[in-house]
Structure formats: structure tokens, C-alpha cells
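for the writeup, i need someone to sanity check this before i put it in the appendix. the sequnce is what the collaborator sent (i think, or maybe the updated version? ugh). structure was predicted straight from it, no edits. if anything looks off just tell me and ill rerun, i have time this weekend
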Amino acid sequence: MKPIYIVLIAIGSIILFTFMGYYSVYSNAVSLQENVDEKWNNVQSAYQRRADLVPQLLATVKGAAANEKEILLKVTQARAGIVEAKTPGDLEIMGRKIETAINLAYEAYPQIKSTENFQEFQKQLEGTENRINRERDLFNESIKSYNTHIRGLFAGIFLNKEVFPRKKGFSAKAGAENAPEVKF
């Protein structure tokens, strides 16, 4: 084999390996960049879930508590009327006959569920915040992988810094270390 062919094969191999290296580095950078974007979209989705869910849960819990308060107040008032009754005619409460009123006196109080509703609200709120935190963590992990790749030796040579800029991970806003106030 002539020396010129050996030189041409060597040059062709170098060009082929350089192209394959560039292709691999570029494709991996694109994949990691898309992964970062996906993770950030998941963070945004978790934020939206919280924005949609918390006001609805809070309104439901408030409504149930107000309803139970009204029921308990009416039951208490009805029972107070039974105790104050002096004659059988006084025992006719809210259009009921004496037997019904006596049975009402022995009934158990309505089961109060508002405390359970508030506890469920707290669980849902905690679960939502845990989801958001997990999505932020996954976002930061994807940023780390992406930044590590684009800052590598060959990637640093082959990749355009404008197309593949270094990304910053999630960081809390000023004052975020303070817990938000939830008003009932």
C-alpha cells in the first residue's frame, strides 16, 4: 500500500472520529437540555396544581365547618328548648310532637367532621408542597447533569456557548425561608 493512501486513511479516520465525537457530544447536550426544560415544566405544573387545589380545598373545609356549626347550633337550641319546657304543650318543638321531642333529647350529637376536614386539608397541603419540592429537586439534578456535560473538555470545545449556555438551578426567592400565612 502506498504511503499516500495510509495518510489519506489516517486523515479520513481522524475526520470521521471528530465528526462522531461532535455528533455524540451535541446530541447528548440537546437531550440534557430538553430534560432540563421538561423538569422545569414539571415544577411549573406542580405550582399550578397547588394554585388550583389549595383554594378549592380551603373553600370546601370552610363550607363544611360553617355547615356543621349551623347544625350544631340548631341541635343545641332544640335541646335547650326541651329542658326549659314546663308543660307537654311546650315540648312541641319545630312542629314535632312530644314523642319526637323526647327522642331528640336522647339522640347523640351530630358527628363533627370539620376537625377531620382540617386535618385532611393539612395532609393535602403537605403532599402538594412535597410534590413541588420533589420536582424542584429533580430540576436541580437535571441542571447538574446538563452543566457537567457542557463544561466537559470535548463539549467545551465543540459546543456553542450561546446555544448551550450554563443554566442555574432553582433558588428560593428572598423571604421564602419564612412560612406563608394561611388564613381561615
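The CA atoms of residues 16 and 172 lie 46 Å apart. The chain has one domain: 3-158.
thx in advance!!
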